[in-house]
Write a structure and sequence with these properties.
The structure holds two protein chains of two kinds. Chain A is an all-alpha fold. Helix content of chain A is 34%, strand content 0%. Chain A has three helices and no strands. By secondary structure, chain B is an alpha/beta fold. In chain B, strand 2, helix 5 and strand 3 (116-121) form a beta-alpha-beta unit. In chain B, strands 4-6-5-10-11-9-7-8 form an eight-stranded mixed beta sheet, with helices on both faces. Chain B has a three-stranded mixed beta sheet with strand order 1-3-2, sandwiched between helices. The chains are: A mainly alpha, B alpha/beta. At the A-B interface, helix 1 and helix 2 of A face helix 10, helix 11, helix 12 and helix 13 of B.
């Protein structure tokens, strides 16, 4: 299936990426080219194969349910853009 | 001065321990070389003040007869490792002002062993690339040139600053990370040793994430012995990384014997790709003879799903990347481009902060994870990943190690690189399978092309057998006498 201009704009919106006009067209070209190459995988029948999520890990290890850090608000805010106040990040108004 | 920068990591270690030289002397020589080779653009951030301070402390420890594995040794750090108080960019504009308030486990391990930080090394943006051409901080130039030709060549990628800096002797060794070949390919392009350890050997905590099920840190060095030393210092279990391997780190350097007698070495027929570079093919043949002469048994093997590894990787890695890179939203740290509303802010920040290759991969990842395409792409790729991993498991029933070329070609032109993304992706054709299977592999410089450029051979081992892997690498290193060939080449020109 060839991705259309509309498909590319939908993907870009899902990925929260603003693309310039010329980038939309070049992204359409590149993605179709790459996905066409990836279609090589259709040669394989994998119906009976279990998916593999990671290596060597059958089960994620568990740790003790205890607090291991905290009280580091200054560290967390140190790189905040905009004008943070009272240890809060600044964002444009969300609720009208 | 030039004598000092021409030492290997382990030679410098010995001279520091015997108090023949001081760390401040050694570090000063490297700072000078770092400044003298700035045109390569290998460093994004130079940290000479930190280096000299650390060197001074190391000298005091060494004088007291103390000191860690890397005490007083100046190294470079790929700018993907978070370093407390020092700018960490991941090669991206979106992190152009990011100063971490914490330290990655791997770098902390290095400082705990006494290493000295010269600076943060250039890389492809978020480690996505094979030529260091996607960095927001400009391309890196390979110190190697073709014989009688001044054309600038790429150092490989994504750890291109690391390989260029070690090759240019502006640091003794460097850290790298490898998601599909990003340590081994640049090491091969710059005539160096690069090892990607087993997934889980080095902690990923504090390493800017690209594809978490594939990313692994490792060293780029001049020699196999240096690689063993650096890897020993970098490795170790870390409770902060749930995928880190819970076991003691072997003394890799003390286990080096270079003995391969009686080992069974597999040669996978699928790596003999169509239209293979003749010199690469010849070097591979040469590597087989060296190991045979050293007493190893050569066995033909098959890894039948090899050709599906790259397309599988280009589903899984972008999928994981699109998820990992969702955190760069202009709200908590990094670049912010103001917008009319929150969505606008997200889209503007990410649209401006990410480069084209990163955007391309985020979009592929978003697509293959989106409703309706998840099974056809993402789930399918996870199944093929199992087939590729099973190929290796079956091969390792018959052999102890596998020998292949590291790259399909030597370093290529910086001005005229492949413009087709798929052609660029082919650089990792020999390395990417190993990341999917989580295995350790090392690239060893093994020969020079007619035009005088380095080529590497890759050795692949069983999970957590880095010690054995390094022995095979050392056997090749001795047989290849790469340094001898380089000296001859430099004398002739």
């Amino acid at each position: 299936m060839e991705l259309t201009r509309e498909n590319i704009m939908t993907i870009a919106r899902l990925a929260r990426l603003r693309l310039s006009e010329e980038r939309i067209e070049s992204a359409r070209h590149d993605l179709n080219h790459i996905l066409g190459w990836i279609d090589m995988l259709n040669e394989l029948n994998v119906d009976k194969v279990d998916p593999m999520f990671s290596v060597f890990i059958d089960q994620m290890p568990r740790r003790q349910d205890v607090v291991t850090d905290g009280n580091i608000a200054d560290d967390i805010m140190a790189n905040a853009p905009g004008e943070p106040m009272f240890n809060m990040f600044e964002v444009p108004k969300v609720v009208e | 001065m030039t004598d000092l920068i021409n030492l290997t990591l382990s030679q410098a270690r010995d001279k520091l321990r015997s108090r023949e030289i001081s760390s401040v002397e050694l570090t000063s020589a490297f700072i000078k070389q770092m400044e003298a080779t700035r045109e390569l653009n290998a460093y994004i951030t130079e940290t000479p003040e930190i280096a000299l301070k650390q060197a001074d402390i190391s000298d005091k420890r060494l004088a007291a007869g103390k000191g860690g594995l890397l005490e007083g040794l100046p190294i470079g750090i790929k700018d993907l490792f978070c370093t407390k108080g020092t700018l960490t960019t991941a090669g991206s504009k979106i992190l152009q002002n990011y100063v971490p308030r914490y330290e990655s486990t791997v770098t902390q391990n290095l400082w705990d062993e006494g290493a000295v930080m010269l600076g943060k090394l250039n890389l492809d943006e978020f480690a996505m690339g094979s030529a260091n051409l996607t960095s927001a901080y400009g391309p890196v130039i390979n110190p190697w040139k073709k014989k009688g030709d001044a054309e600038a060549l790429v150092p490989g990628g994504s750890s291109g600053g690391s390989s260029a800096a070690v090759a240019a002797r502006s640091c003794l060794a460097a850290t790298g990370t490898d998601t599909g070949g990003s340590i081994r390919q640049p090491a091969a392009f710059c005539g160096l040793v690069g090892i990607k350890p087993t997934y889980g050997r080095c902690s990923r905590y504090g390493v800017v994430a690209f594809a978490s099920s594939l990313d692994q840190a490792g060293p780029i060095t001049h020699t196999v012995r240096d690689a063993a030393l650096m890897l020993e210092a970098m490795s170790g279990y870390d409770p902060k990384d749930s995928t880190s391997f819970k076991a003691d780190v072997p003394g890799f350097e003390s286990l080096l014997t270079g003995n391969v007698r009686g080992l069974r070495i597999g040669i996978p027929k699928e790596y003999r790709i169509d239209g293979m570079n003749e010199e690469v093919s010849q070097l591979w043949q040469q590597g087989i003879s060296w190991l045979k002469q050293a007493g190893a048994e050569i066995i033909d093997i098959s890894l039948p799903h090899t050709k599906y590894a790259l397309p599988t990787y280009y589903i899984l890695a972008p999928a994981e990347a699109s998820s990992n890179l969702a955190r760069y939203d202009g709200v908590r740290y990094g670049l912010r481009v103001e917008g009319e509303n929150l969505n606008d802010l997200y889209e503007m920040t990410r649209g401006e902060g990410f480069g084209n290759e990163v955007k391309r991969r985020i979009m592929i990842g978003t697509y293959v994870l989106s409703a309706g395409f998840y099974d056809a792409y993402f789930r399918k790729a996870q199944k093929v990943r199992r087939l590729i991993t099973t190929d290796f498991a079956q091969a390792f029933d018959k052999v102890d190690y596998i020998l292949t070329p590291s790259t399909p070609s030597p370093a290529f032109s910086l001005k005229n690189p492949p413009t087709d993304p798929v052609e660029m992706y082919m650089n990792d054709v020999f390395t990417v399978t190993i990341n999917l299977a989580g295995l350790p592999a090392v690239s060893v410089p093994a020969g020079l092309t007619q035009s005088g450029l380095p080529l590497g051979l890759q050795v692949i081992g069983r999970a957590f057998d880095e010690a054995g892997l390094l022995n095979v690498a050392e056997s090749i290193e001795v047989a290849a006498n790469f340094q001898g060939k380089v000296t001859e080449l430099r004398k002739a020109s």
